[in-house]
Amino acid sequence: MSDAPLLFTPLTIRGVTLPNRVVVSPLCMYSCAGDGMANDWHFAHLSTFARGKAGLVFCEATAVTPEGRITPQCLGIWNDEQAEALKPITRFIESMGCVPGMQIAHAGRKASHMRPSKGAAPLTEADAATGNAPWPTVAPSAEAVTPNAPVPHALTTEEIAELVQAFADATKRAHGAGFRVLEIHGAHGYLIQSFLSPLGNHRNDAYGGDLQGRMRFALEVTEAVRAAWPDDLPLFFRISAVDGSDDGWSLDDSVVLARELAARGVDVVDCSAGGIKGAPAFRTPVQGGGERPPGFQVPYADRVKHDSGVKTMAVGVIYDPHQAEAILTEDRADLVALGREIMYNPFWPLHAAEALDADPKHDMWPEQYGWAVKRRSQILGFKGLRAAE
Ligand SMILES: Cc1cc2nc3c(=O)[nH]c(=O)nc-3n(C[C@H](O)[C@H](O)[C@H](O)COP(=O)(O)O)c2cc1C
Q: Among 24, 28, 190, which residue has the most ligand 1 atoms within 8 Å of its CB, making it the best to mutate?
């Protein structure tokens, strides 16, 4: 029997084997030149995590239409040129033995905002002077996400069908660009979650009302994406497991949704939370408000996993290798995703492997670094580090 840590035990989903269970959570970089095209920054950013040997490296929320971008600097995949620009990234991630993942998204009524480093406010005509002209936003209902945000256009059923098609088209492009895992962004108050949540959806047609109606758009997108994504490749779906408000989307709703998603070929439900009221999800208070201690969203992944039977990914203030390992060994989730922690330390997986005794000889390191890092350990006399030999 192997006593290897579960975090560094491969996991096969459909035809894809992840070399370990550490996932780079999607992280918006707001670094395009207004054209949705990946550039040197995206390559440098994502390739670092592959050198750090995360099993699965997700790129940021990537818009399926120009209007679906959060900011003018967001990545897009609404044309073939954008897909082409992503190919060097997927090639490099593969060359490190890691798996490249794409997150497809539409920001809905949270589109047309300034990037966070410049204040994250809704764009106004005055921002056109700096190349950040606003654009009309869309949503299930004509209700602004915050008092200052523009009132979105309430989508017609024809427009909803066009957006479902945009998700399917983006899926084909993502496959062509070399991604081997796809995630639908159904969280954080963006378009799909604003249909799901009673706080964002006040329609009285087939796409609103009760839970079945509010889930309709998410499920239609899922069906179209699954049909466009090869059968042997895994499909993930990110949910906001709760809205953080008692009259909003609940964990019980998430269990129902997870079952419906699994029935339509979703392999992993990625359990995030919050965002429906406008704030970035990672700043939204948890249910009942208050603190976000380490692993605060793990209970969502745990509940969804056990009550729906679908694999889950846990995310949110996961920073310690033993904490991550415990989430898996206690069977609370199947994968762990890191965001801020892995930006702080892109080599987190390699350091975690050392901490968990999974890589005593630095064999997991890229060949170019491994021999030298091993020598470093010897020179330092293993001070503060585990012996390499
Ligand atoms: C800079 C930044 C950008 C993010 N961009 C995305 C994104 O593109 N898509 C998404 O689903 N979540 C996004 N998130 C949320 C993260 O994926 C993650 O769920 C969240 O940060 C919690 O994990 P952490 O505590 O390890 O950072 C972002 C978070 C940060 C800090």
A: 28
* Terminal CA-CA length for the chain: 23
Measured between alpha carbons, how far is 212 from 44 in angstroms, rounded to an integer?
Answer: 42
Nearest one of 183, 179, 204, 181 to 192, comparing CA atoms: 183
Is 78 in a helix, a strand, or coil?
coil
Given a contact cutoff of 8 angstroms between Cβ atoms, the answer to whether 261 and 217 are in contact is no
Q: Which of 282, 286, 341 to mutate to test the pocket of ligand 1 (most atoms within 8 A of CB)?
A: 282
- CATH architecture, domain 6-338: Alpha-Beta Barrel (3.20)
pLDDT digits (tens, 9 = 90+) for 123-144: 999 999 999 999 999 999 999 9
Annotated domain spans of the chain: 6-338
CA 76 – ligand 1 centroid, Å: 17
Q: Do 169 and 177 form a contact (C-beta atoms < 8 A)?
A: no
369 assigned to active site: no
Q: Which atom of ligand 1 is nearest to the CA of 292?
A: 25
Residues 6+ apart with CB under 8 A from 126: none
**Span from the CA of 68 to the centroid of ligand 1 (angstroms):** 17
Could you tell me the pTM of the whole model?
A: 0.96
Q: 296-344 pLDDT, tens per residue?
A: 999 999 999 999 999 999 999 999 999 999 999 999 999 999 999 999 9
The CA-atom distances, in angstroms, between 69 and each of 99, 104, 113, 151, 188 are 25, 11, 9, 16, 14
